[in-house]
Amino acid sequence: MRTVITGGAGFLGSHLCDYFLEKGHTVICLDNLLTGSADNIAHLLGIENFTFIKYNVTEYIHIDGEIDNVLHFASPASPIDYLKLPIQTLKVGSLGTLRTLGLAKDKNARYLLASTSEVYGDPQVHPQSESYWGHVNPVGPRGVYDEAKRFAEALTMAYHRYHGLDTKIARIFNTYGPRMRLEDGRALPSFISQALKGDDITVFGDGSQTRSFCYVSDLVEGIYKLLLSDVHEPINLGNPNEITIFQFAKEILEITRSNSKIEFKPLPVDDPKIRQPDISKAKRFLNWEPKVDRLEGLTKTLEYFRSAIMESVKK
Ligand code: UDP
Q: What is the pLDDT of residue 313?
């Protein structure tokens, strides 16, 4: 099987490259390295079944030969990144989805869109199931990501219904693990970096907002199962174990044995107050559920962050 992964040098994309190579696929990784990093795929360069092409997938994509699968994972994905890169975020979610769907149609390949829990916005239904249409502010600062992904879902369903393309849509909830960028601005990398450096832990708002964190190896297995399934409607992938951001900060202080203090900062605009995936559909149709609990996942992630911080100090 030949599999194209856009955003393949990003956090999730690079773990997908590893996983698909392990499964015996030939992997073609496309990434313009805007938020991705060559370091994430450095260990794969030189492997016969792996090709990296530095490319912006909002442009027309041409790849020689047959392709079996196209996975569209290219996008800034941290709130800080999409505030800094609003037009690029909109373009990769809209034009990038169009180009990658076009490639899949041309090659008669399976297609999988990386969508997001952000399509539910600041939800008024809890937990969020796929039948909920969401509560999104289209013109707020997060709208560039949320609306691009909502458009991407609509376009993907149109290619499925109109062209009969074999498409899948994963609504990915907060995922963490090695290769997240230290400075990516999301809660987990910020809290771990702050705790390890002895800086204050920046909790936004009063910390009562909730999230549900999924370890990356679980997510990647879910993506693989979804790709090979015949589920064309969107499906939630995430870990339903919900925690407040304040508790999460305290948990990170404990596992790092840090003396850092918690500092409260203003809550960003339109920050969702609650988030927890209803994964009954994934359980039923994919026979999938997360296996890695938070303590185990955080311990593995911590090892990565310790060495990444050492590296950044050396540089
Ligand atoms: N957050 C925080 N401090 C930080 C970064 C994030 O308290 O330094 C909060 C943020 O306001 C949100 C939650 O943690 O309520 C998760 O934020 P993140 O940026 O990780 O992702 P989101 O789930 O909002 O996309």
A: 79
**CA 59–ligand 1 middle distance (angstroms):** 31
Q: Provide, rounded to the nearest whole percent, the portion of the chain with pLDDT above 90.
A: 97
Q: Are residues 23 and 92 in the same domain?
A: yes
Q: Does ligand 1 have an atom closer than 6 angstroms to the CB of 264?
A: no
Q: Please answer whether residues 163 and 105 qualify as being in contact, where contact means their C-beta atoms are separated by less than 8 angstroms.
A: yes
Asked whether the predicted pLDDT for residue 229 surpasses 80, the reply is yes
Alpha-carbon distances, residue 291 vs 215, 240, 295 (angstroms): 9, 11, 12
Least Cα distance to 109 among 157, 66, 172, 64 occurs for 66
103 within ligand 1 shell (Cβ under 6 A) = no
Distance CA 152, CA 79 (A): 18
Is 215 one of the annotated active-site residues of the chain?
Answer: no
Verify that 297 and 226 share a domain, yes or no. no
